[in-house]
Amino acid sequence: MKSRMRYFEERRGRVEIIPMIDVMLFLLVFFVIVTLQMIPDAGVALQLPNAHAVQQLQKPEVVINVLHDGTMQVKGTTMDVARLTALLRATSPDPKNVQVTIAAAKDTPFQNFVHAMDACRDAGVTDIGIAAQPIASADSQ
After folding, report:
1. Mean pLDDT value across the chain
2. Cα–Cα distance, 15 to 26 (Å, whole number)
3. What is the pLDDT of residue 87?
4. More confident position, 24 or 8
5. CA spacing 20 to 30 A to 59: which of 4, 29, 91, 100?
6. CA-CA distances (angstroms) from residue 87 to 82, 93, 97, 103, 132?
7. What angle do CA 72, 78, 83 make, to 5 degrees?
8. In what order do the strands lie in the sheet with 77-79?
9. 67-73: which pairs have CB atoms within 8 A and are 24 or more residues apart?
10. Is the separation of the CB atoms in 59 and 97 below 8 Å?
11. What angle do CA 111, 116, 120 make, to 5 degrees?
């Protein structure tokens, strides 16, 4: 048996499929996570009250929608005052750092709005914003 050793032996390239699948799955997971964080919190369609001095706030952690009948919704879940207070307390170890925006329709009785404020205060939340539309956009109504 004669064995010849070739120093410049030509080797054919191989495509390794498993590392390529790993990379593709990693990219898929990355884009899914980024996309989910970009989806805004879908709120309830409300006719917000108009205001002259409207200030754009940072994106709040919790948006409380107060409906005309007094029900409060957070991320599509209907809550009473006690449940809302518990949710706000559980949102962060320090409720003073939780940013809350209360969105109430302009025809909502003020007492219903006060119930949402009470839940925030009972939970220890101090950073509360009130959703309103600027007067300039009210001209088209």
Report:
1. 77
2. 19
3. 87
4. 24
5. 29
6. 9, 12, 14, 17, 24
7. 80
8. 77-79, 72-74, 62-66, 99-104, 127-130
9. 67/105, 67/108, 67/112, 68/105, 68/107, 68/108, 68/109, 68/112, 69/112, 70/109, 70/111, 70/112, 70/115, 72/115, 72/116, 72/119, 73/44
10. no
11. 140
Question: Sorting pLDDT into bands at 50, 70 and 90, what band is 139?
Answer: very low
Closest by CA to 113, choosing from 74, 47, 64, 58, is 64
Q: Rounded to 5 degrees, what angle do the CA atoms 46, 54, 35 make?
A: 60
- The total number of residues written for the chain in this structure: 141
Cα 107 from chain centroid (whole Å)? 26
pTM of the model: 0.56
Query: Count of CB atoms within 10 A of residue 54's CB?
Result: 16
Tokens linked to 86: 């518990």
> Which pair of tokens denotes residue 119?
């839940």
Closest C-alpha to 62, from 122, 125, 121: 125
Tokens matching residue 53? 């001095």
Domains along the sequence of the chain with CATH: 50-140 (3.30.420.270)
